[in-house]
Amino acid sequence: MYSVTSYVLKIASRCNLNCSYCYMYNMGDQTYLKQPKFMALETVQAFADKLKSYCNSAGIEFVQIIFHGGEPLLAKPSYFEECVAIFRNTIPEVEYVFTIQTNGVTLDKNWYELLLKLKISIGISIDGPKKYHDEYRVFHNGKGSYNQVAKAIQLGKQYNLRGLLLVVNINIPVADLYAEMKALDVNSLNLLLPDGHYDQAPFGLDMNRWGDKDYTPYADWFIKLYKIWKEDKDRPSIYFFETLVKMIMGQEGIGNQLMGRKTNGVVVVESDGSVEVVDSLRACFEGITRNDINVHKNDLEDLFEDDTFQLYYRAHDEVAEQCLNCPVYDICGGGFLGHRYSEEKGFDNPTMYCKDMVRLIAFIQNDILQSLPEASVAELGIEPLVYDEIIQSFDEENEIKIDPKIQAKLQSYQKALHV
Length: 419
Ligand code: SF4
Known about the structure:
The chain has 419 residues and is α/β, with parallel strands linked by helices. The protein is built from 15 helices and 9 strands. Bound molecules: iron/sulfur cluster.
């Protein structure tokens, strides 16, 4: 039985920004154009009905609903009241976490008060200091959105809501970024690796240097940030680091679609009621997430029969052979499925951030080991890691062989089979 507890509701399919790296609008997938601008409340109700049936049959007691878009705050305030009422009335027996992910440009006092009243927690996307934010997070007229977003974050102090989501831009000097987070008095920050894969490099990455053994620009950037963050006595929560540290320390049951060995349990409901696997996979190729499943005619469980959903759900178990033999596999998990894609081999690759993950995990693990008393190190049972040795091991004969059926499944997404 699949356990899926996080649902991303694309309540608005359009956005008031036009970010240059956005997978929805600027990375090869145009399916949003066929979607209604807003998810009708009848569709929300149809989804809630199907969710109830699934929760009851699968024994799900906790559900996270993430209001997303496009830009979800393009919907009317009353829309959110009605949505929350639909869920609470239809499935009163489950515990909810409601979240909204917004670009923040219209987030004012009235929105904060409403979202607080409805117990919807707020995540605001920002790209860093004004100079960098305004380069990418722009309105449709090309103007930067920093001033509006910074104002919304400042306002959030009154409501104790300063949770930010930041897509990593390695061109931003780490000290500048950290100073910005402190100036905005951020209390929690999550970091995302940019979308991209072997045939579409994430921004900031020099593919001419990508094959160099020591070219790990993301790890270098993260390590600088980690050092500053660790030294800060009044540091904000940084989920990316905290998750890595917990996993290295042996805590079980954590991880996400970027790292770790947990199954991936995020489902996307498009504004027309289509139910799909997580939509950032669209950066791989047009239509990869498409199927014929819709809450108006299908059960949620029908998605679990979908090949791409199954691949995504088990993405940290069904990995390339190099990952199966990698000493940091339990922490890295082979990375996010979308970052593994190549036209030549489908998903039969390590994440394109592989070397960065090796270097980062090795650094944090070694740092933890150095800061603990010997007795605790022995209890933890973790060893120092040497980056060069791990990278060298990737050229050696693999002891663990990949199951040919899994390899065939990963390779079935080669471009030649999908044109
Ligand atoms: S570090 Fe590389 S080889 Fe190791 S699990 Fe991650 S992607 Fe796979």
